[in-house]
Each structure stands twice: as C-alpha cells, then as structure tokens.
C-alpha cells in the first residue's frame, strides 16, 4: 500500500473485488480508491466502466456525501491508461470505436457531476488515466518524481480516445496540448502545474488532507487557489482567434508530415479530432476522436508499436540469463571508465545521472579534462531544458572524478573500457585493471573485437563481458551485453541489472564478430555501397532507405559514425563471414582518399565549418568503379537489396544463437539502428512479408549476385513449413 493512501479511514460503502475499486466515506468526503488486483499498475479495462458508473451514481444520490476524490492504491502509478492488452484484442474498427465511445460517455458523466470530484494524483497518470483526471473538476498532484502525466497514445499508434483530444486543449491551450498529444511525452508534476494541467502541487504526505479540504471548499462554492497556467504572449495571440488557430493547425500538420513522412497516421488523426472540436464543438470532436480511435486500434502500425511496448516491458523483467536460471546481481555503486573520449565520457554521463560514482581515466590530463567537460555539457543542456536544476547538476558532477593513473579504482565494482580498438591495448588495460581492482567486473565497449579474444588475457575470465553502448550514449536507448562461454551468471546478471539502472533497454547476446547489431548492419551498409559501385547516386540511396522508415540513410550513417571506424570493422566482418560482408569498393576508396566523415567535415557529403551538411561531395563519384557514370535504380529495388540482407542476417544470428529470441532481435534493431518502429523490427517485418516471399526474393537476388543473398537455412525451413517467428 502506498504511503499516500495508508492514512485513509472511513466507512466502506462499496467494494468490488474483481476490479479493486472501492468507495468509502469520511466526514462527507467520498474516497474512490483504485487498486487493480494482480497487477503492478492500474489500467482501464471494460470491467471497470460499469463499476465507476455505479459509484458515480451512488455519490450523486447519497446526501451525506458532499464531494469525492479518486486515489490510487499503487505506490508508483495513479492510472496507466487503457489496458493495452485488451486493446490489442480489438479486431474491428467498430469495436475500437465502441470502446472509445464507452470511455467518453463515462468521462462525460464524471465531468457533469453536480458534486466536486477531485483527482488526487500520485504516480503516473497516463493516457486514459490523465483523461479521467481531466474530466475531474479539480486536480491536485504530488510534487514527486514518480508523478508524471502524459497522453502517450501516439507512441502506440493511437490517439487519446476518452476525450483527451477535447479536454486537454480546453485545459492548457491549443499549442501546449498539441505538443503533448503529438509527442506523447512525459510531463513532470511541477511542469504540469505550471502548464495548468493540475491546479495544485503538494507533498505526498499531505495529499489526502489537502484534497479533503478542497472537496469541502468546492462543495461550499468557495474559490480555490488559481492555477499557474502559463502561456507565452505570442501563443495566446495565435490560438485565441480562428485565423491564428488555422495557422497553428497548418504548422502542426506540416511538422508531423515532415517528421513521420506519412508513415504514422495517429498524430494526423489527433490533429483532425482536435480541430473538429474547435470548429464544431466538443461532441463533434469526440465523435471524430472515437471514429479514428477505432481505425487506428486495428492498424498494422499500432499492432507493431504495441508489440514493441510489450517486448520492452518484458525485457525490464529479464535477468539476462537462460530461462529458469538465477544469480544475485552485485549492486554497482562505483565504476571505473577507461578512456575519456566520446564514448567514455558518454558512459560516465549516464552512470553519474543514475547516481553511480565514476572514476574516469585517460592517458593525459588534457584528455580527462575534455571528458569531464563533455559530461558537464550534457548536464548543462538538461539544465537548459529544465530537466535538472543547477544544484542537481552540481551534485551529479561531483560524482565524476578523473585520473591519469588508477587511483580510486581499488573499490570499483565495474570497469568499462572505451579505449582504442586494438587487441593489444585492450589486453594491457585488462591486466592493469585486474591488478588494481580486485573485485571488479571488466566490461569492454568494443564494437569489433570478440570478447573471448579480450578475455584470453584475463586471470578472471568469468568476470569479463561486453557492454556495447551506442552513440551518443546519453540518447541511444540500447545496451548490448555480450557474454562468452566463460562469463559467469553473476557477471551477466550484474551488468544487465546495472544497464537497466542507467536507463537502458538491455539485450544479452552471444559473442561473435559484430555481435548482433553491427552484424546485421554490415550487409545492409555494404549492399548500399555496392549500389554506389554500380553508379547509383549517394542521395538517392539515402532517400530510398529514409522512405523505408530509417531515421537516416546508410551513407549518411557512415558519415556520422566515421569512415575510419567503418573501415576498421569491414575487414573483420569479411574475414568472418565472407562474400556477403565484403565492403564495397567505393567505401574502401573513399576511406583511402582520406575522407573521415562528418567529424572531419569531409565524407560522402560536404560539411561547412560548423559541421552543417552542404550536399553530396561530387568528388566521390570519380572514386566509384562506375567512374562517375550514373544509373537510376528503382526505390523498391534499392530497399530490397539493402534491407533483405539485414533481415537474412538477423535470422542467421537467431540460428547461430547470437540472439536469444526474435523479440531481442526486434528490439536490438529498433533501438540500436533505428529500424522503423512501425514495422516492429526485422522478425516482425519478416512475419508480415512471409518467409516464403522473402526466400523467393533472396534467391532471385542471389542468382544475380552470387554468395551475397543466400537465404539462411532457418528462413528456408520456415518458408517450407509456413511457420512464423512470432506467434
Ligand atoms: C490509452 O490509454 C487509450 C485511451 O486514451 C483511450 C481508451 C478508450 N496496459 O513498464 P512496467 C504492465 S492507451 C496494460 O514494467 P514501470 C506492463 O506490461 C494506454 N499493461 O513498469 C507490465 O506488465 P508485466 C496509454 C500495462 O514501473 C507491468 O504493467 N498508456 C499498462 O517501469 C509493469 O509495467 C500507456 O501507454 C497498460 N496501460 O512503468 C502507459 N501499463 O508485469 C504504458 C503497464 O506483465 N505504461 N502495463 O510485464 C507505461 O508507460 C509504464 O508501464 C508505466 C510503469 C510508466 C505505467
């Protein structure tokens, strides 16, 4: 039971064991308490609607009740929205529309109650949860980090379906509402108060007392504290007249289209519903909202995004060990980071933000100073965005210490190395760490060197593991943990638990060249390069893959990662996997020409002094085997030739036991590479295409380009049996 609700007393009037909803009354104030049984969170399913209906009626009829509050029985969640599991069982648009209408009508009833009803919010109020709060007459939230408010439906390919598209704009203004609904982002309690979503902020320990007082005050018709609703002057001007609103809606549509390229229908549908409400009134807006909710609930995009939600929550519970195995993770309080470059500093940044003490070591004072500045810069940016106070930044920075020797390493629990990609250098630092840090796990952030090769120098190989972070570390959500046959269960459990602690989604993969993410990336990048070999245009290749749904094209990605880095991994992958991993001639020649990519302001593209991209470097074409002569390749052909080998390689990784499941393969690709989320990941996309279709296309390509497109044996077998990767 949460600290907030434990002080509740009163006479219980109703109790529904199935839903966990109860009604009690004390001193004229009714408390509606929701504590869904057998669930860590409260969700809204079709069973709770009728119970709430009954309770609302009872509150209205009971003369001894002056008003009511809605509280949660969970420690960290108020209400997490509609039950997503129930939503994914919706099979027709009509069914989805009916669900939405049901929710809207219930909340209309709540909003129309004659007695004051207050949302007493402690913990996450998300989706339908926030929609309930918005239908309450008054909202009081706790000023607690766990109290967050959001309408995250677009992240599931949906729109708020219980009146959120109508009530939020009327509560916070059009532009603020559009920003929340179109991004689905979390709003902290204080910000929610500043925006005017909640009327008051209180400490959790006095929430119930304050709410009870306000119920009485509202019932007596007294005025309550005025909300801090904050609008910029220009925003007020723009949205307070019809012409201004037209401009706001037009800009919102343009921004959405630019960002989603039309691949995600939900944000546009949300704009339609909001606009319908402004133009034709709330009921028209609600009808539009429900109609779209029905369509979106059965859309492929929503199905895939929901699958990502469930895969991510399943990974939160995964200890990283084989099914049924258990090991107690060591609590990581202090870590050492070797190398204060871009990756090292990035790792230090996420570690200190999670409260870990960090010792960052590099060879010179200049280098460690630069690393510390990089940590500070990320934190400063967060202060600028008001995600952190100056005081919190100072406290966080105090956790990073830097050194050019191993001082302060004796009591570290974990050392993560991000030094130069050279086996001899890795061996040297491993031996040094084992000598100075007697109980530390040694984790390598290598992206190219097999972990077992690094572990050959170890006296404690059971404590050697890979922790492959993605760049920039503070933004990229994935962590690939690489285990060797000698890595102990406790080492794996510890780094997996620590990865989650620093906010990463963690997949555990078996050791092998490129591990998982870089291995499936390699044939995709190489085949893109081979299109250039044949004379395809650099920007045409990039555009084709952006049109497929990747955030950037493969050639842009090369420039961003750095051509020297790509040049290092290419030969390793080719040596391990042969023809299908051999880098293109164009890539090799571009590297030989001294182009290093964006960091050197010269790659496949040209960059100005500030690093802003200027366009294709036409000089690259002279380096291709096609010697400047150009061909046009159809977009679908370019997509097929690059994406199919990525899918095929993902299946090989599953076959080879590199990844544990299609789920991990999907999450690794979506969070590590930016594989289009609306396609669900390589395995879900394979299921959508059908193994037989993919095998036929790969066979056809393999006939044209021998050795590069041979379908994985497992894929052939699945094509023959008609099996799927996901049930
Ligand atoms: C919506 O509201 C539509 C409406 O507008 C209209 C309706 C008509 N449903 O993440 P965790 C489960 S759409 C079902 O590990 P945390 C989750 O799967 C909804 N299940 O905990 C997991 O299950 P299990 C909009 C849900 O503390 C368990 O709870 N709402 C739901 O790290 C624990 O979850 C959202 O998109 C749900 N709504 O984070 C919110 N929520 O134990 C989605 C959670 O079997 N949820 N579960 O593995 C979240 O963002 C996070 O779960 C939350 C807790 C912040 C609440």
UniProtKB/TrEMBL annotation:
E.C. numbers: 4.2.1.17
Gene3D superfamilies in alphabetical order: 1.10.1040.50, 2-enoyl-CoA Hydratase, Chain A, domain 1, NAD(P)-binding Rossmann-like Domain
EC top class, as a word: lyase
Sorted UniProt keywords: Fatty acid metabolism, Isomerase, Lipid degradation, Lipid metabolism, Lyase, Multifunctional enzyme, NAD, Oxidoreductase
UniProt catalytic activity: a (3S)-3-hydroxyacyl-CoA + NAD(+) = a 3-oxoacyl-CoA + NADH + H(+)
Recorded metabolic or biological pathway in which this protein acts: Lipid metabolism; fatty acid beta-oxidation
InterPro entries attached to this UniProt entry: 3-OHacyl-CoA_DH_CS (IPR006180), 3-OHacyl-CoA_DH_NAD-bd (IPR006176), 3HC_DH_C (IPR006108), 6-PGluconate_DH-like_C_sf (IPR008927), ClpP/crotonase-like_dom_sf (IPR029045), Enoyl-CoA_hydra/iso (IPR001753), FA_oxidation_alpha_subunit (IPR050136), NAD(P)-bd_dom_sf (IPR036291)
GO molecular function per UniProt: enoyl-CoA hydratase activity; isomerase activity; long-chain (3S)-3-hydroxyacyl-CoA dehydrogenase (NAD+) activity; NAD+ binding
Family as reported in the entry's similarity comment: In the central section; belongs to the 3-hydroxyacyl-CoA dehydrogenase family.
Protein name as catalogued: enoyl-CoA hydratase
Organism: Gemmatimonas groenlandica
